[in-house]
Amino acid sequence: MALDAQPIPSLVDPFGRTIDYVRVSVTDRCNLRCIYCMSEQMQFLPKQELLTLEELDRLCSAFVRRGVRHLRLTGGEPLVRRGIMDLVRALSRYLNSGALDELTLTTNGVRLAQYADDLAAAGVRRVNVSLDSLDRATFARIARGDFLDRVLEGIAAAKVAGLRVKINTVALKHDNAAELADMIRWAHAGGMDITLIETMPLGLIEEDRTDQFLSLAEVRRDLESIWTLQELSDRTGGPARYVRLAETGGRLGFITPLSHNFCASCRRVRVTCTGTLYMCLGQDSAVDLREPLRASRDDTLLDAAITRAIALKPKAHDFALPVRGAAPAVARHMSVTGG
Ligand code: SAM
Ligand code: SF4
């Protein structure tokens, strides 16, 4: 280090929260079109708008230098990004050096069978797989694609490769409400945690989300008539709350952005596939990192932009319970920001 070089400060926001977790969307594209996430005819971004793999590496490295310990790659579907394994392998240098505790991935599982061994070899220890139904027709209706078997093969391959798998399930009033208990049973029998997610009003889609909104407070009451839910203190720096089911021994998470306020302990930020850093999933405060990335090979501008951004992290999100026919609280789709 040069004598006059200042150490770069770690990322502490105006409310004293240390940011140590970053989710990075590596693409807005996907091989599914889940009804709550995308419209059937999605317009994807022109390729040149997306960060290149090299830019993604520089961006992640900038966060790691500032003390970020957890990186999660997401999308869109991260496993449809060409060269994704090159990025994962490159980032694994921080696992080897001890700078990162964890490098993880959120995937729909369709291509997981193909990548499971490589992910494990690169040091990935766990993956989140999104799965909203175990019934083939229901799955195909929700995901707008008949890929249940591929996802189940992907999950099996991940386990064989030694990856821990957590299942994420969006609770949908009309499509899978009746199936949630069975999905929990299935996940726990297979040694997997499962997290239920309330639909969030992100991005315009064809459906009216108020029709599908299912309060997890309601779901939880139903589950309490089947199992004993033991409150756990585990927090992940994000919106999930966890219980253990005494009878299955497995963990169950609830992500309830609309009916619960989780913001006080939020240590996360998200970067879109175009390099926009969002301080909060439910707010529009954002800073562009692509411009400083492309303006110079040196990271001084990038580091300064990250510092500016963290100073903007809001205290809490602005989500409100959905109102019939209302525009989404946040116009961008989850597939752009990354879930
Ligand atoms: N394609 C990958 C997948 O599905 O896991 C990663 C990206 S996806 C946007 C990440 C997560 O966001 C998924 O678990 C998905 O179910 C969830 N998601 C997408 N849109 C949502 C919405 N409007 N409300 C709640 N969860 C949403
Ligand atoms: Fe694709 Fe994931 Fe969105 Fe489904 S939730 S459309 S798999 S990005």
Write a structural description:
The chain is α/β, with parallel strands linked by helices and 339 residues long. The chain has a domain of 217 residues: Aldolase class I (TIM Barrel). It is 30% helix and 17% strand. It has eleven helices and twelve strands. Strands 7-8-9-6-5-4-3-2-1-10-11-12 form a twelve-stranded mixed β-sheet. Helix 1 links the parallel strand 1 and strand 2. Helix 1 runs parallel beside helix 2 and helix 3 packs parallel to helix 5. It starts with 20 loop residues before the first strand and ends with a helix. The mean pLDDT is 88. The structure holds S-adenosylmethionine (SAM) and iron/sulfur cluster (SF4). The site of S-adenosylmethionine has 19 residues, from strand 3, strand 5 and helix 11.
List descriptors.
single chain; 339 residues; alpha/beta; TIM Barrel; twelve-stranded mixed sheet; 11 helices; binds S-adenosylmethionine; binds iron/sulfur cluster
